[in-house]
Amino acid sequence: MKGINRARTGLAGVVATFTVLALAACGGSSDTSGGSDGGDGGDSGSDLIRVGFSQLGAESGWRTANTESVKESLSQDAGFDLTFVDAQQKQENQIKALRDFVAQDVDVIAFSPVIETGWDEVLQEIKDSGIPVVLVDRTVDTTVDDPYVTWIGADFKQEGTTAGEWVKENAPDAKIFELQGTLGSGAQVDREEGFGEVVGDQIIGKASGNFTRAEGKTAVEAALQAYPDMTMIFTHNDDMGLGAIEAIEAAGKVPGVDIQIVSVDGVRDGLQALVDKKFNYVVECNPVFGDQLADLIKKVYDGEDVPKETIVIDEAFDQTITQADVDARAY
Amino acid sequence: MTPTTPAPSGASRGATVWREVTRHGLFWPVLALVVLLLACGVASPGFLDVTVRDGHLFGQLVDLLRNSATPLLLALGMCLVIATGGIDLSVGAVMAIGLAVSLTYLDNAADPSNVGTVVTAVLLGLAVGALGGAFNGAMVAGLGIQPFIATMILMVAGRGIAMLITQGQITTVTSAPFKTIGSGFVLGVPTPVVIAVAAFVVVSLAVRRTALGMFLESIGINREASRLAGVRSRRTTWTVYVIAGVLAALAGLVYGAPTMAADANNIGLMKELDAIMVVVLGGTKLDGGRFYLGGLLVGAMLLSTLERAVIIFQLPSQTTPLFKAIVLIAVCVAASPTLRAMLRGRRRADRSNTPAAPVETTSAAEVTA
């Protein structure tokens, strides 16, 4: 009996030691990462604003352009000490990054949530720590009261509506197949909603292509068979639309003519397809808003009043776009 | 005489043949595949048509074959690994690494459309796959680490490596010869199908025409006994992981070639599970030993047909995982020897109230045999 008890105490001791070590290790690693990112010497209390930014991943050219823009605008020269973490499209990575930011006690946390739900716990922790949150590009659906200070991004629903209005005006008889993005993402839900409100009765079928070219292609291959009377594809991003072009061409049809393509994003390859008359209409989703984000974070840091929402200005293009326009684009 | 050998007369012979057929490991997967294809044909007329367009085959069935190439290549390697009693969770990540290396090389090459350059790029990709496999093999065969854990290292780290190679970007290249690997045709047949079938034939010949297959099974059944019997179990195991790595990299090239975009985050995501599923559908047990390469063909086709059927049946994409799960559960349950033994046991017990005990024992023995 005594032996067992002693063994237990011993075990508990070992566990406790490990926990302490693990905690120490965590603190240590976050310190070093903060220091190395800070460059000119960690917690000297310089006037740099310490920002933790969790990007959701690099799933498309759009995201890459957005990342570039953010990194460029939140530079040290501009007065920021940016800790940038790529979540590789996994919510658990993102939640971990957010907790690390809290542990590092950054001044402002900014993040683009990979999906809308499942943030209650970590947002509450951030709120308890008193660090202001700026949501970037995507939104969250949470039970936490007042979970973020402000949100900046494109209005996905408006993008869907803009695309729908073009269709209503230019192709009122089109039978539309909708190529959805990753199911449950803000871009998919809102673009589908905005588009559906305008021309919902023209949609004959939907399937997801997960925002990637390869899956967009396979989905359209199947859809061409399943919905033979389709005359238009509305895709939630350019990459899936580019995959759709390949599937349509393989089926011996002409993209942009036999099957029109309306897309959202406006990445270079997508606009090039517009110049080549393979896309018919592209609603831009402007990723280069790092400067707007930087202004916003400064205001939040200084405690100024900021609007709850900042909408990034989007444009829309049809086939009148020229090669020169495309070449002049930053991304 | 035991009652399990029925008199070979008339109807009962038919019943025997039927039982033999249904007892074959591939009966239920093949049945599921045929039913699915026919259902697709009914739901969408023209689904089963194969036409010749621009001098090559075209049609939904051709698409399905092309989409089956990637899971088949992965499953080929996976099947050999599983035969040795191991598992390779890293194949999806190795796909991403192989493609990332090839496309990055092409991206930096002076002339990405040069055939020689493309061949070099492909060989580089495959070499990196071999390297990944060699690492897995060294961990498993050399250091004796559990295959599940050993290959999980590369599964987790692999995407990071691919990201490093592409510098976090989605590297896109334009190179007609490279694109052919994924979307071209050889004598009217899609190139990926040709590649996958060639790989299948080579692997089949290697394991069935040489003693390799027997070595693999003996290692899977009892590593120590096979070693004592003179099989070089370490070296053989290591080789098998290298083969799996090369095939995974090849699968990555075939999968990524049509879009020519090295998307380190998404290429091959969850494909390791697809590969394991194809192996299991093909009738190979995860505990090692006996393996069936032929079943992989059916498994791979079934997998890609399932994914397509969701759209053909005009079901919302939200239901894809559920639909897949239902069919797979049905196939696995129907093919379960234990279930059939139970059913047969009950039927016999119902039919004859005469001594049931010896009958049941023989039927159980026959099933496990």
CATH 2nd-level architecture of chain B:
Orthogonal Bundle
Helical content of chain A (DSSP H or I, runs of 4+)? 40-55%
Provide the residue-averaged pLDDT of chain A: 83
User: What is the straight-line distance between the termini of chain A?
Assistant: 71 Å
- Count of extended strands of chain A: 12
* CATH homology superfamily of the largest domain in chain A: Response regulator
Describe the largest sheet of chain B: 2 strands, antiparallel
Order of helices and strands of chain A: HEHEHEHEEHEHEHEHEHEHEEH
Number of domains of chain B: 1
Structural class of chain A: alpha/beta
Strand content of chain A: 15-25%
Strand content of chain B: under 5%
Subcellular location (chain B): Cell membrane
Region (Disordered) (chain B): 345-369
Protein name (chain B): Sugar ABC transporter permease
Membrane topology (chain B): Multi-pass membrane protein
Condensed summary:
The complex is a heterodimer of chains A (331) and B (369). Chain A is of the alpha/beta class and 331 residues long. In chain A, 47% of the residues lie in helices and 17% in strands.
